[in-house]
From TrEMBL:
Amino acids binding CoA: 194-197, 312, 524, 585
EC code(s) of this entry: 6.2.1.1
Protein name: Acetyl-coenzyme A synthetase
Stated role: Catalyzes the conversion of acetate into acetyl-CoA (AcCoA), an essential intermediate at the junction of anabolic and catabolic pathways. AcsA undergoes a two-step reaction. In the first half reaction, AcsA combines acetate with ATP to form acetyl-adenylate (AcAMP) intermediate. In the second half reaction, it can then transfer the acetyl group from AcAMP to the sulfhydryl group of CoA, forming the product AcCoA.
Reactions catalysed, as given in the entry: acetate + ATP + CoA = acetyl-CoA + AMP + diphosphate
Keyword Transport: no
SUPFAM superfamilies (UniProt xref): Acetyl-CoA synthetase-like
Length: 650
């Protein structure tokens, strides 16, 4: 994907310079301080958290090349749930913590800070009664209901690590993630609701748990009341577990570097990576960026539309907003149901002032025209955010002109599961924006661009995006796989963290993210490894070989394009094409289903047997004027037949 670009500059509105947390001079001053005197800068920032024991050792970070370690606030002691709940009880006990908007517009629910605290304590006590202790792993496979946040915070309260698995993932994907971390407990629901339809969760959980001997208990939330199978001794209803528990639970004392959660994300190989975040650094990064990038103030109603199953939901539905004592909106449904006005109706209904969504949702709504937006008021809105993939200038401008009526600045926030929180993003009172650019780094973050050989480039340039420092929110390791952590992130450019993204820096020092440069596809803001989809395809009995690449897609950003070679006696057919789509849905989940499947008699390989993805990407994109160097291909003639095959697809 080439870098989106637009020359337009949107200056900071005068009213924002006065009321926001930082103006331009203050941003520049504090950014320099964070670079030149990080110990002092971060010691001050750490005071945003509530500690049982304040840290004196602030920062001990080395990105190699020899020793690679990331430690922040090492001797500090705290509890994340206390920071998100208890410390607000004095002043905000009755303030809405979570405003939940159901899939059905008639359903909503508000939990005050006092109520959320009590709910979290009850579940925490329930988990303890099931034998869950500090350091244990708990997998959370829940739809977008308040209990998902309650489950995360209850784990944090007792020092158990949560591993949230997106409810759209299959039994197979769930099992893999449970097994990788040997979770002791699974929290799920009977079913979920989305777009007026129910989807199974407990049935998937049952299927997954057949292969997960580590799981001793399965706690089931009743969401729809749908029929579920039951395994006595293992399965427990959520409401029965929490009903008689005390609404107070002594928080576990956690060291700053004790693990808070693991979250699986796709990499270049078939096996998802267990990104590990620890307690203080992550919480501080999430809450500071929520305050400064998303400009949170006390009176705001904040809505992040992400799912709790992704890092954006972790940092900007749960930890960031709640650590700041915010009202956070949680939405169970989809942007286009019951109609294409839904997002804007929810904004009016709950008087949302800060709205944070993904480009794919914006592009899907652009297709519905302006009328569904104009039918609503959106008067409460004052800031718009974007995350998950590069936002094309057209989508940016529509978001700005139509949704925000030119009144609301847009913050395009670049970050990753690994960085924990936004790392390149404008502070809206300080930094003029350009449509399509994530602009400048957050405090403590030093992005660099390197060329193919790992040499650092200066000034205006384009190349691979690395970080010399990513701040306190960075992942600490990959769970139980430190070698893969070192290999994946620190081997491409010694001494630097490699993001997997490409980027360009313009004459003003602004960063423009150009998309992944590794074998990861970004489908509707969701990361998928090509290898994951390939291994699902080749697991099908009729498939001999498969190669998967991303290609430009008008709504999803990138679509999934699969080249499939069938077994010798199998004939290609539309039925088989559909069956393979269904198969991948079942193996991984609906988000991984290929958008296009092209039959291929063979795949272009180098003489050493490596699939030449570069060529396949070009063919999928319909860009075959210059395929680059194909001289190392074992059989160059087959490229022509793939190009012919592509024509029959589009
Ligand atoms: C937060 C999140 C990370 C990948 C990342 C990049 C892409 C995210 C972006 C963006 C351009 C932005 N990405 N935000 N690209 N502009 N504002 O999405 O985490 O799911 O781990 O994905 O998403 O490619 O490397 P995650």
């Amino acid at each position: 994907m080439s870098a989106p670009s637009s020359d337009a500059i949107f200056p900071v509105p005068a009213s924002w310079q006065r009321r926001a947390w930082f103006d331009n001079a203050a941003y520049r001053r504090d950014y320099q301080r964070s670079m030149h005197d990080p110990q002092r800068f971060w010691a001050e920032q750490a005071e945003h958290l509530d500690w049982f024991h304040h840290p004196t050792r602030i920062r001990d970070v080395s990105y190699g090349p020899e020793d690679i370690h990331i430690r922040w606030f090492e001797d500090g002691v705290l509890n994340a749930s206390v920071n998100c709940l208890d410390r607000h009880l004095l002043e905000r006990a009755r303030k809405a913590a979570i405003v939940w908007e159901g899939d059905d517009p008639a359903e909503s629910r508000t939990l005050s800070y006092a109520e959320l605290h009590a709910e979290v304590c009850r579940l925490a006590n329930g988990l303890k009664s099931l034998g869950i202790c500090k350091g244990d792993r708990v997998t959370v496979y829940l739809p977008m209901v308040p209990e998902a946040a309650v489950a995360m915070l209850a784990c944090a309260r007792i020092g158990a690590m949560h591993s949230v698995v997106f409810a759209g993932f299959s039994a197979e994907s769930l099992a893999g993630r449970i097994r990788d971390c040997d979770a002791k407990l699974l929290i799920t629901a009977d079913e979920g609701m989305r777009g007026g339809r129910r989807f199974a969760l407990k049935a998937n959980a049952d299927e997954a748990l057949k292969r997960c001997p580590s799981v001793q208990a399965c706690v089931v939330l009743r969401r729809t009341g749908g029929e579920v199978a039951w395994l006595d001794g293992r399965d427990r209803w959520y409401h029965e577990l929490v009903d008689h528990q005390a609404s107070n639970c002594e928080p576990e004392t956690m060291n700053a570097e004790d693990p808070l959660f693991v979250l699986y994300t796709s990499g270049s190989t078939g096996k998802p990576k267990g990104v590990l975040h620890t307690t203080a650094g992550y919480l501080l990064a999430a809450s500071l960026t929520h305050r400064y990038v998303l400009d949170y103030h006390d009176e705001d109603v904040f809505w992040c539309t992400a799912d709790i199953g992704w890092v954006t939901g972790h940092s900007y539905i749960v930890y960031g907003p709640l650590a700041n004592g915010a009202t956070t909106v949680m939405f169970e449904g989809v942007p286009t149901w019951p109609d294409a006005s839904r997002f804007w109706q929810v904004i009016d209904k709950h008087r949302v002032s800060i709205f944070y969504t993904a480009p794919t949702a914006i592009r899907a709504l652009i297709r519905q025209g302006d009328a569904p937006v104009r039918a609503t008021s959106r008067k409460s809105l004052r800031l718009l955010g974007s995350v998950g993939e590069p936002i094309n200038p057209e989508a940016w401008l529509w978001y700005y002109n139509v949704v925000g009526e030119q009144r609301c600045p847009i913050v395009d926030t670049w970050w990753q599961t690994e960085t924990g929180a936004s790392v390149i993003a404008p502070l809206p009172g300080a930094i003029a924006t350009k449509p399509g650019s994530a602009t400048l780094p957050f405090f403590g973050v030093e992005p660099v661009i390197v060329d193919e050989d790992g040499r650092v480039l200066e000034g205006e340039c384009e190349g691979r995006l690395c970080l010399r420092d990513g701040g306190p929110g960075m992942l600490r390791t990959l769970y139980r796989d430190h070698d893969r952590f070192v290999q994946t992130y620190f081997s491409a450019c010694p001494g630097l963290y490699f993001t997997g993204d490409g980027a360009r820096r313009d004459k003003d020092g602004y960063f423009w993210i150009t998309g992944r440069v590794d074998d990861v596809i970004n489908v509707s803001g969701h990361r998928l490894g090509t290898a994951e989809v390939e291994s699902a395809l080749v697991a099908h009995p009729e498939v001999a070989e498969a190669a998967v690449v991303g290609y430009p897609h008008p709504v999803k950003g990138q679509g999934i394009y699969a080249y499939v070679t069938l077994k010798a006696n199998t004939q290609p057919s539309d039925e088989l094409r559909n069956a393979l789509g269904q198969w991948v849905r079942k193996e991984i989940g609906p988000i991984a289903a290929p958008d296009q499947i092209q039959w291929a008699s063979s795949l272009p390989k180098t003489r050493s047997g490596k699939i030449m993805r570069r060529v396949l990407r070009k063919i999928a994109a319909g860009d075959t004027t210059d395929l680059g160097d194909t001289s190392t291909l074992a059989d160059a003639t087959m490229v022509e037949s793939l190009i012919d095959g592509r024509r029959t697809i589009a």
